[in-house]
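User: Study the fold:
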Amino acid sequence: MDSRHVILDMLKTRYGDRWNIRATPNMWIASARKSETRAAPTVIALSLDELIEELESPPKRVGKGLHPLLERLGWERIGTAWRSPDGGGDLLA
């Protein structure tokens, strides 16, 4: 087993509960195991040091994901839509 595989196994042991980690010859890639995370769902790094830094303190998610304002207003997430807090049948897609 080459050193890259040993490092990958160590990363999976340390971060594998939160991240699915893989490597190519040129980069490291980590995907969040939970789709409803507030962190970036995918981290791509060119160096091992950069990857570890991103896994320890991942950047915030941009775009789709949990919308904090709707959550605070009591809306409920239903798949990719939101149900109003009054329990009505209307969904915001």
Observations:
- Residues 3-15 form the longest helix (13 residues).
- The radius of gyration is 18 Å.
- The helical segments are 3-15, 48-56, 68-72.
- Residues 23 and 86 are 47 Å apart (CA to CA).
